[in-house]
Design brief:
about 475 residues; FAD/NAD(P)-binding domain; Elongation Factor Tu (Ef-tu), domain 3; about 30% helix; alpha+beta; six-stranded mixed β-sheet
Length: about 475
């Protein structure tokens, strides 16, 4: 349902999942957030935690998307992994730690619902989403409205965070395109299949993490591994390349894939051994039946707290569903696999942010609009939530009469923000995960792990100075 000025909305439209308007005691004016994904949910939490009232607009279930299965806030539509949780040696692990120190709701829910996943932070997707939604609905300064914002927000919404993600509704996307005067960019994102645990043959598949590495909720045996011989691997790759795939529409043919989420058949097309050095690499693993490392390995990671669902790691695909079922059942250990979800492909939309957004993520053509999450051109759950966190703090600072102060570029948040808002070349801008290549150089003769650890230590020192005692407070 389209949203008009608040004076024009019929009373039936204003019915919400849960409303706390009567208990909103803050003197600050309301900030409107469009989109209840990870970025929008985190932005709402940061604003409300700062004493600023929020109206969170989520179009599901009024209008669905190509990828979402539920109407829940902060639904994870692809993997259930937040990737590495190593704050000392990995940029995304560092981003986790910065978010925790900033009071992130997304990280609080992730930590409360983590699953065994080696050195990664994986979560029970349903428990995670439920925890985020429950916290938001329980906050007295947050009102949730289930409605589509079809077009530009009403003029009387003087502070708006657009966190509609890569699956922005067509009407809003077109309004933003017309306003910015620039065609939106896009890339394809793929979804991996999920298998019922009871259908996996555990006489073939075994539990082990690479190099027996433990993690946030694991013990060094967090993945199920399905081994392949050379002949089985070669036959599998041939089947991938020959398999019937989803056809692109004519207007989609020039849309690129995001490198971090390429379909396995696209990876395989670049060379017959590519998968053995990518998602099917066997290093650090030993088949207990033979005592030797297999030629290739397909790994599965726990997807829910009960352990009844496991996703096939790195197996994003655009194969048609019948082909997926046939081909994936040729994998040893998955010959009788039953699938809770098969893989898929969807087109993601994002802004040319280096050209269109200012240093605090406001649209230059209409500064009352601020953007957060994947629509800004970041990639990944944690990156999207981190950008949502920053927009929430920026908008809260403005409501308190303060000038928003961006995190230092030496921090993971600041490095990601700098890339999105000007560090990247607008002519070739593509979605980016956080990585140490975005950070300013550090003085000293550091190499390899020492360099990463030095960058992380500097980042956390600078982040602590930024976040306390008065975050973003700059007169």
């Amino acid at each position: 349902m389209p949203v008009a000025s608040s004076d024009e909305i019929p009373s039936a439209t204003l019915r919400t999942t849960r409303t706390h308007s009567d208990s909103m005691t803050s003197s600050a004016k309301t900030v409107h957030i469009i989109g209840g994904g990870l970025a929008g949910s985190e932005a709402a939490w940061q604003l409300a935690s700062a004493g600023v009232p929020v109206v969170l607009h989520e179009m599901r279930p009024v209008r669905g998307t190509e990828a979402h299965l539920t109407e829940n806030l902060a639904e994870l539509v692809c993997s259930n992994s937040f990737r590495s949780d190593d704050a000392a040696n990995n940029a995304v692990g560092l981003l986790h730690e910065e978010m925790r120190r900033a009071g992130s709701l997304i990280m609080r829910a992730a930590d409360a619902h983590k699953l065994p996943a080696g050195g990664a932070l994986a979560v029970d997707r349903h428990g995670f989403s439920a925890a985020v939604q429950q916290a938001l609905l329980a906050h007295p300064l947050i009102e949730l409205r289930r409605e589509e914002v079809a077009g530009l927000p009403p003029d009387d919404w003087d502070s708006v965070i657009v966190a509609t993600g890569p699956l922005t509704s067509p009407a809003l996307a077109e309004a933003i395109r017309r306003l910015s005067g620039e065609e939106s960019l896009a890339f394809f994102d793929a979804i991996a299949p999920i298998v019922h645990h009871e259908s996996i043959d555990l006489s073939i598949a075994w539990k082990q993490s690479r190099y027996d590495k433990g993690g946030p909720a694991g013990d060094g045996a967090d993945y199920l591994n399905c081994p392949m011989t050379k002949d089985e691997y070669d036959a599998f790759v041939a089947g991938l390349l020959a398999g019937d795939k989803t056809e692109f529409k004519e207007w989609e043919h020039n849309t690129p894939y995001f490198n971090g989420c390429q379909p396995i058949e696209v990876i395989a097309a670049s060379g017959p051994q590519t998968l053995r050095f990518g998602p099917m690499k066997p290093v650090g693993l030993r088949d207990p039946r033979t005592g030797h490392r297999p030629w290739a390995v397909v790994q599965l990671r726990q997807d829910n707290a009960l352990g009844t669902l496991w996703n096939i790691v790195g197996f994003q695909t655009k194969l048609k569903h019948g082909e997926q079922t046939r081909l994936f059942r040729t994998i040893p250990g998955l010959q009788n696999a039953e699938f809770a979800r098969l893989g898929g492909l969807h087109r993601n939309t994002f802004l040319n942010s280096p050209r269109l957004l200012d240093a605090t993520l406001r649209l230059k053509a209409m500064p009352r609009l601020r953007f957060a999450g994947q629509i800004t051109g970041c990639e990944g759950y944690v990156e999207s939530a981190a950008v949502g966190l920053m927009t929430g703090k920026f908008a809260a600072a403005e409501r308190r009469g303060l000038a928003p102060l961006a995190p230092p570029p030496t921090t993971a948040m600041g490095a990601l923000l700098g890339h999105i808002t000007g560090g990247a070349d607008a002519a070739t801008f593509q979605p980016m995960n956080v990585n140490f290549g975005l950070f300013p150089p550090i003085d000293g003769a550091f190499r390899g792990k020492e360099r990463k650890q030095a960058l992380s230590a500097r980042a956390l020192r600078d982040f602590d100075q930024w976040i306390a005692p008065t975050p973003l407070a700059a007169e």
